[in-house]
Structures are given as C-alpha cells and as structure tokens.
Design goal:
- The complex is a heterodimer.
- In chain A, strands 1-2 form a two-stranded antiparallel ribbon.
- In chain A, helix 1 packs across helix 2 and helix 5 runs antiparallel to helix 6.
- By secondary structure, chain A is mostly helical.
- In chain A, a hairpin with a 7-residue loop joins strand 1 and strand 2.
- In chain A, 64% of the residues lie in helices and 5% in strands.
- The termini of chain B are far apart.
- Among the domains of chain B are: 71 residues, DnaJ domain (Helix Hairpins), CATH 1.10.287; 76 residues, Serine Threonine Protein Phosphatase 5, Tetratricopeptide repeat.
- In chain B, helix 3 packs antiparallel against helix 4 and helix 7 packs antiparallel against helix 8.
- Helix content of chain B is 58%, strand content 0%.
- By secondary structure, chain B is mainly α.
- The chains are: A mainly alpha, B mainly alpha.
- The interface between A and B is large, with 42 and 31 residues.
C-alpha cells in the first residue's frame, strides 16, 4: 500500500484527530512489539485505516493510554489499545505488503536504484515469515494479487479495469474477512474493499504516470489515454517529450474522473456499513481524505514542489 | 419489534420535525436509486423498509393510532433497475439473467455472440455486465459504443449518463473548479456580492454604490 488513504485534517474535530493519531501510534507500538523495533519504520496511513476499520466493524473494547514516543523521546503520545487483535492484523498486513513491495522493486529497478531494498530484504524476510504464519489467508491474498498484477502488466494494452483487479480483489478479500460471521455486513465490506483497492491502484498509477512515460515503464493510463507518443524512442533510455501544459491538464482530468468513479461506488456501500466506533473518522477518510489526495497530487502537484505532506 | 426511535437514531422526546428530518436523512442514505446496479440492493431495501416501518410506527403512535399521515408522508418506496425486460429484445435471456443477478451466465452468452452480430444492444448489455462486476471504465466504453450505434435510444444514453456522472464528481470525489473545501473568495465573488448588497440597499430605500 502507498499512503494515499488518510484523513483530511481540516475537516476533522480535534477529538477525532486525536483519536486518529492515537490509533496511528498504537499501530506503531504494535509493529514494534510483534516484529521488532525496525518494523516501526514501515508504519503507514493505509494500514492505520485498515486497523481503524477493523475496530469499527468488530466493536472491540478500547482503552486509552499515555506515554512517550519510542522514535522521538521528546514527543508525548496517546495510544488507543484494543482488546481485539485488529492492530496485530494491521501490523501483519504492513509487513506482508512491504515485503512484497521490496521484492517488486528489486525485480523491476536497476541494481543501483534498488540497493536499499536489497539491503532491507533479508530483515523483512524474517518478519514476513512470522506475519504469514500468523495470518496465512492474508499472506495468500497478497501473494496472489502480486502474481496477478505481474500477469496483467505483461500486456501493454491491458485495460485500467484489468490492472486494478488484483489490488481490488485483494482488498475485497481482506475487508470481507473483517466482517467475521456477520453475513449482512460482509458484502458491504467486500464492495468497499473492491473499490478502495481500485482507487488506490489508480491513484498510484496516476501519480507515477509522468515518471513512467519518461522511463518507458508500464502504466495502464498510457494505453487508456493514448499517450504512446510520449514514450522514449527505441534505443533511448529517457523520453525527450514531456507531458506538459494543456495536454497534461487533460490527462489529469481524465485520471481524476477514473478516481471519482471509484469513490462514487464506495459511498453507497459506506452508507450501509454499520460501525461501532470511529465512524466519523472513517467517513472523513473516504469522503474528504481521498478527494483531497486527488487534489494534492493531480492538481497541486505537491510532490514536485518538494512540499511535505503530513496529516 | 425493535424500538422505532432507535432505528431512526432519535430520542423518544424528539419533536415531530426532528423525527421527520432524521427519517429524511436516512431515506436519502438508503435511497434505492443508488443501489440499482449494486449487489447491495437487497440490504439497502431492507434498511429502507426498517426505517419506513419505524417512521410509520412513530407517526401512528403520535397520532393516537390513526397513522394516516405516515405512509403518505414518506414517499420513498420501491426501486428500479437499469436493465429492464425489453419486449423486442434479441437478448431476452441475457436481460433475464442480469435482472436476476446471474452475471456470469449473462456474460457467457454475450461472449458467445459472434462479432458481426454485436449490435448496440449487445454493447449496452455487455457494459451492464461489466458495470456490475466493478469494471466501470470498460463499462463506460461499451455504453459509449452502444450510444454511437443507436443514438436515439434512451435506455443506453441513461446508462452512459449515470456512469459518466460518477466520474464528474456528482456523487462524491473531487471536481476541480467546484472546490467546496476551500472557503476562498475571488474578485468575481466580491463584485457580485457588492452588486447584490447594493440592490438590497436600494430596495430598502438606501444606496450602497451611488453610481449603479
């Protein structure tokens, strides 16, 4: 996962923001506890959302604690702990997805570019084994998604829908699992997972589009929006023609439409989701956080200006 | 029977207007229109039924058991499905499968149709199948093709329109230019507000901008 699923802070109540931070810190703590101090570095917003959704659905009993941040001794943190295993599950998901992402980088990128990933892989491998032992179904879902993704990207003309399918299917399985024995809620969770997975994959593809065009890497939007002209010429490493000006704007509008469609499919399902906890935060993330991410990446280009985004 | 007040999320001491508003908000949330093509249709209908019953029950109780205003007042019932039974259809079996939710069967038949027999209706139905599977982008392409082949058909253009509106941010998401997130105010807003204020002043006999 990529860190695109986060709340829109200025539309949150202070209380909600504090709760979000406390859940974030608790997940960090859980990563350290289950997988060692090094695992704290793979903490992500996406997996925090997963943990909070899990808690919201199961309605586990929560307790609030205060303490010092392990990573920054000057910072004080609050923690929302749960009697259930939601954080453990989210921590395992962080480990499993990070491990696969490292392997993916090593396979795709040059030796120099993937150097850090190569160093980190042996560390992650042990953690991955532990996590996949704890949640074999989750490990299987992620593994299948990675294999299917490779399969889909073999065809340069693969449609957006085909390319979104692996991530979408993976999240639909992972979200459905959260429903436990609640048969009424399972289809709702499946639908949210499916279209959130599509949104995440499409957001990542839209975010990487300019880089992919420059280096000639696979990106489903190239075929969808007929951008083959911008790819590097044969024998050349980098493309001379950059996507810019009016053309770039049109491409971004088209990407934005694809993303909006997925949000439009999540919202009716979200209306039917029964949450015992964190309902306002989860609603904020889907209804405000995701559109805000589209705005920042596609229209404000925050990444290019070197601006830091933080919640 | 569950507590009708709990179903609507209001306290038993709430006023009639509060109850009406709570009911309206929930009815909007579960409105069948958004679930026409969705696997969640049944659950949404169930929820809709629950709140309708709760609302009727409260109304009946408050009006001394008469309950006359209840059912008449709500006006949110039933649902519709974009793919209907079309009398002159070449693909009546496909339509039946889609309406009964047997998407895989419908797709199998559609895929077996040779390329030269794929007419506008085929593209519309294939688009509907793709849409139900969540392959929204390909669905749009198929709806577009159906509309190109048979421009006058309202069934096809309605499907295309509703799919396109999702992308435009009508049902959520981000639409550039209509940004409600930022409480900004541009020069155009200022001018129009001033003119508006001037008009108001003039109505009351005063004047804010003497020259107009």
């Amino acid at each position: 996962m990529f860190g695109y699923v986060r709340p829109y802070k200025s539309e949150m109540l202070v209380r909600e923001y504090d709760q979000y931070k406390a859940a974030y810190c608790q997940l960090c703590k859980e990563l350290g506890k289950s997988f060692g101090i090094g695992a704290r570095f793979i903490l992500s917003y996406d997996c925090t959302f997963y943990a909070m959704l899990a808690i919201g659905v199961t309605g586990s009993e929560l307790t609030l604690h205060h303490g010092k941040c392990k990573m920054n001794p000057l910072k004080k943190c609050s923690y929302i702990a749960s009697y259930g295993e939601e954080y453990k599950r989210a921590a395992a998901l962080s480990v499993i997805t990070t491990y696969h992402k490292l392997r993916d980088t090593i396979e795709d990128d040059s030796f120099r570019k993937s150097f850090v990933s190569r160093l980190a892989l042996p560390f992650m491998k042990r953690k991955y084994k532990k996590a996949s032992g704890m949640y074999p179904l989750m490990a299987k879902a992620v593994e299948e998604a990675m294999a299917d993704q490779q399969e889909a990207e073999k065809d340069p003309q693969a449609s957006i829908d085909r390319c979104c399918e692996p991530t979408a299917h993976m999240l639909s399985v992972l979200f459905e699992e959260l429903g436990g024995c609640n048969e009424r809620q399972k289809p709702v969770l499946r639908q949210i997972g499916y279209f959130l997975g599509r949104w995440i994959y499409a957001m990542d593809a839209a975010d990487d589009l300019r880089d992919d065009l420059e280096t000639g890497s696979f990106n489903p939007f190239i075929h969808k929006l007929s951008l083959q002209n911008y790819l590097p010429d044969k024998g050349q490493k980098r493309s001379k023609q950059l996507l810019s000006g009016e053309n770039r704007k049109n491409v971004e509008l088209a990407c934005n439409e694809v993303l909006n469609t997925n949000i439009a499919m999540i919202l009716p399902a979200l209306n039917l989701l029964e949450l015992q906890n964190f309902d306002a935060i989860i609603e904020n993330i889907i209804k405000k956080g995701l559109p805000e991410m589209q705005r920042e990446i596609l229209f404000l280009h925050v990444k290019e200006k070197g601006n830091d985004r933080s919640v | 029977m569950t507590d009708p007040y709990k179903v609507l999320g209001v306290s038993p001491s709430a006023s009639d207007d509060e109850i009406k508003e709570a009911y309206r908000n929930l009815a909007k949330k579960y409105h069948p229109d958004q679930y026409a093509e969705s696997p969640l249709k049944e659950l949404a209908d169930e929820k809709m039924k629950e709140i309708n019953e709760a609302y009727d029950q409260i109304n009946a109780q408050r009006k001394g058991g008469a309950g006359a205003g209840g059912a008449a007042g709500r006006g949110y019932t039933g649902g519709y499905n974009n793919v209907g039974a079309n009398g002159s259809s070449e693909f009546r079996d496909v339509r039946t499968y889609i309406m009964s939710g047997r998407i895989a069967d419908a797709e199998q038949i559609l895929n077996g149709v040779p390329a030269d027999r794929r007419n506008a209706e085929w593209y519309f139905l294939k688009g509907s199948v793709l849409f139900r599977r969540g392959w929204v982008e390909e669905a749009k392409e198929h709806f577009t093709r159906a509309c190109q082949m048979d421009p006058g058909n309202t069934e096809y253009s309605a499907a295309l329109n509703s799919a396109m509106n999702q992308g435009r941010g009508v049902y959520g998401g981000y639409s550039p230019g209509m940004n409600s997130n930022v409480g900004g105010c541009n020069s155009c807003d200022i001018c129009s507000s001033l003119i508006c204020a001037d008009c108001c002043c003039e109505c009351m006999g005063g004047d804010l901008i003497p020259c107009c």
